[in-house]
Design goal:
The protein contains 15 helices and eleven strands. Helix content is 37%, strand content 17%. It folds into three domains: 91 residues, no CATH class; 134 residues; 204 residues, no CATH class. The chain is an alpha+beta fold. It starts with 28 loop residues before the first helix and ends in a 19-residue tail after the last strand.
């Protein structure tokens, strides 16, 4: 019979371990935290990736989120080192290894995925924006090829002979005079104008991506360029928006043109040439109103005409008038400042012809042509208007010069909203083009006309040359029907392009 105080040892317990005491080892805090950070980051990336996959969107985390896998890996590694140096007093080695593995594997995999996307997006976006900037430097009038690239792919017309018809009809029809369409607004914007003035002498250097994100079902990329023209250098910022193509179509892009502009930091730097031309452009606009347009308002049509002639021809015209026995009273130094560059010695025909005698003024060479609208240029490839009204608009604009007065002078005032004047050097001349918006006929406007009044002056070594300005021509750019006042029926075309 067995001793009731004797108990058998369970077979499941190793006999050799009975004498070893159980020792408690605390977990290494760094290992636990590192494993937690790494595990949490892996869960967010994997679950977010699955959701994005089923939605058909990319899974893009903000750049600062890369700190999490870095922190998880660093904490796990420090925890592992701490455990190995603790001489068996700390536990948590497996947690540290798992934290290190998750942080490194998931972090590297995810950011490699982001890097591949970034490279592809940057390559496509920069190619598209490079093409856009090249089109702007062509100084196309108006810049329809560049403007076309600001339209979403689904709204973008094809290149070809009908491109301007399409864009003018869809984007440049305005409800009333004094308001410009999108195409004209784009053409006169600051960055577009500076690139146009620089032309073929413009150099453009890519500075890379400033920011990128996934917005509105596509990638949006903000790029920066260093632009240098003979007039100024600056950093240009533009944004391109991508749209995923359907079926076999690849990703398509367009320029977000209201996010196109010059950065203020660093501020643009103007060259000496640029400063001179800019000052000339501003001065020509300001003095145009106080000179040529002023005498036009006063009804001094002969003076208005003479100020459209080169300085050398003015003296010849004056002599022709004298030889014809017109009895004009002339004063050397009379009316200095009739134009920005009139010299004190410039001789202008004035008061004696304030009331015109057709029999006498006909002897002024070129005067009849001026009254017939000879100042107006409506080149086929420059002036656009719907076919049904194009010739009528040209005729009406030219007829405005039969009796140039206050209404025409007001119509030819430069558009103040175009902040950067179109100024260039042509040989020994400075040429300034100022935008104007006209209503024709002035007595009962049916059409709105956009154009450019072109002035030129002899170039000089001084910053502000003050001689030989003249009004060279009025270039017509576009013409459209104006809406009829309420209650007034009209059979006129609306100004839309055919088929639009």
């Amino acid at each position: 019979m067995s001793d009731p105080t004797t108990r058998s040892v369970p077979a499941s317990l190793p006999v050799g371990d009975l004498g070893k005491p159980v020792v408690y080892r605390p977990l290494a805090i760094l290992a636990v935290v590192g494993a937690g950070v790494g595990g949490l980051y892996a869960a967010v990336v994997i679950l977010g990736g699955l959701v994005a996959f089923f939605r058909g969107d990319p899974w893009l985390l903000p750049g600062w989120s890369a700190l999490f896998p870095i922190a998880g890996a660093a904490l796990s590694l420090l925890g592992l080192l701490q455990i190995q140096r603790s001489e068996g007093t700390l536990a948590g080695e497996k947690a540290a290894r798992w934290g290190l593995l998750l942080s490194a594997l998931v972090g590297l995999s995810y950011w490699a995925y982001v890097g591949v996307i970034y490279y592809a997006i940057y390559h496509e976006a920069s190619q598209f924006s490079d093409d856009f900037l090249k089109k702007l430097t062509r100084n196309e009038i108006p810049p329809v090829s560049a403007f076309r690239l600001t339209l979403p792919p689904s709204e973008r017309p094809a290149e070809g002979d009908k491109l301007r018809d399409e864009l003018e009809g869809r984007f440049n029809v305005v409800p009333e005079m004094g308001r410009k369409g999108f195409l004209s607004t784009f053409a006169q914007s600051e960055a577009v104008r500076v690139l146009a003035v620089g032309g073929a002498d413009t150099t453009i250097e890519a500075l890379g991506v400033d920011d990128w994100s996934y917005v509105g079902g596509g990638y949006q990329v903000r790029l920066q360029y260093r632009v240098s023209t003979p007039q100024m250098s600056f950093v240009l910022e533009l944004t391109v928006q991508g749209k995923e193509g359907k079926r076999s179509q690849g990703r398509q892009w367009y320029i977000v043109w209201d996010k196109l502009g010059m950065k203020s930091d660093p501020s643009p730097q103007m060259s000496d040439e640029g400063k001179q031309l800019f000052m000339m452009g501003q001065a020509s606009r300001e003095r145009l109103g106080a000179g040529w347009l002023r005498v036009m308002r006063e009804g001094q049509t002969e003076v208005v005409f003479l100020d459209t002639l080169p300085e050398a021809e003015r003296d010849g015209t004056r002599r022709s008038a004298l030889n014809a026995g017109l009895g004009l009273w002339l004063a050397d130094g009379f009316a200095p400042g009739a134009l920005p560059c009139s010299t004190p010695g410039a001789v202008l025909i004035r008061g004696a012809l304030a009331v015109r005698d057709p029999a006498r003024v006909g002897t002024l060479p070129g005067f009849d042509e001026f009254l017939a609208g000879g100042l107006v240029r409506a080149e086929k490839d420059v002036f656009w208007a719907p076919q049904g009204i194009r010739d009528e608009i040209i005729t009406l604009v030219r007829q405005e010069f039969r009796e140039p007065g206050e209404q025409l002078a007001n119509a030819l005032m430069p558009d103040a909203s175009a902040r950067v004047p179109l100024v260039r050097r042509e040989g020994d001349r400075i040429v300034v083009e100022s935008e104007v918006m006209m209503r024709v006929p002035s007595s009962g406007p049916r059409f709105g006309v956009e154009g450019r009044l072109v002035l030129e002056c002899e170039a000089s070594q001084t910053p502000m040359p003050l001689k030989s300005w003249r009004v060279r021509e009025l270039i017509l750019l576009s013409g459209k029907s104006l809406p009829a006042p309420p209650g007034m029926p009209t059979g006129r075309p609306t100004g839309m392009a055919p088929g639009s």
